[in-house]
Amino acid sequence: MVEDITSINPTKRTFVTGWPISHSRSPIIHNYWIKQHGLEGAYERLPKNPSEFGAFLTTLADSDFVGGNVTIPHKEAAFQLVDQSDELSSKLEAVNTVWIEEGILHGSNTDGYGFLANLDDRCPGWDAYARKKRGALVLGAGGAARAIIYGLVSRGFDPVIISNRTVERAETLATKFGPVCRAVGTNIGPQESDVSLVINTTSLGMSGEGNPLDVSGGLTGFKDDLIMNDIVYTPLITPLLRLAKEKGMVAVDGLGMLLHQAVPGFEKWFGVRPKVSEELRALVIENLEKEI
Ligand code: ATR
Q: Structure pTM?
């Protein structure tokens, strides 16, 4: 009998889809791990526009993909389309990781995990320290902020202050994530600056009009023992992080969130839990620098 070796050791195909998707660094990360673990696998960029996305996802079980990542602008649509979403993605109403299990399309959200794991990695003890102290201030109220607020609440932060240009969006999230959350506009007063952790989740750097923290204001009012985290990683050191460093604060960049959010998906698809190493981080930084 001639054995069909593809059925014994098939190449597992995985993907990241979004619109646009050409700048995604996820292929660098997953293909590095595939190679590192000697796996038969591939991780591809798949551009899908909003009108193609639904058909692509709902027929995934019939394709040779075992799963993949979903990014902007499809995370909310993916949540609606999966057969089964876990508790976390249901709370966030957004899915960034999908996989097929016994013909069923499953969805999860690993953004909050990536956020927490990055701080655990770069700033050990950050939550115990911050919780004992004065809570957290989240700048922005978009999709990324949602996962981060959930993560902060799960680690016991109190208060979690959400500051956003459009205050109604901050109010919606504060209502959703419970009484420890409080919504404010962009006026940061003494109560809002008396926190031990600040996370910038806004898409722009810190120079945009209406931004709650104007770097030219020199972070006046914030204590020197602040932990400053920016989820923007292009540039790696944002003006906000640079200023925080200059003031002797702890500054944590956003690249680790991207690296760590990839871990649970890879484990689902390939059955190996990969590690976020300095070598991998350096590889992605090298790629980011090439494109600047
Ligand atoms: P994501 O899913 O990446 O978080 P998003 O949902 O578009 O993206 O959210 C972007 C966030 O950046 C929002 O909080 C947005 O504020 P608004 O809700 O008021 O739009 C914030 N943001 C974008 N540009 C901004 C700017 N120039 N000044 C202040 N905030 C800005």
A: 0.93
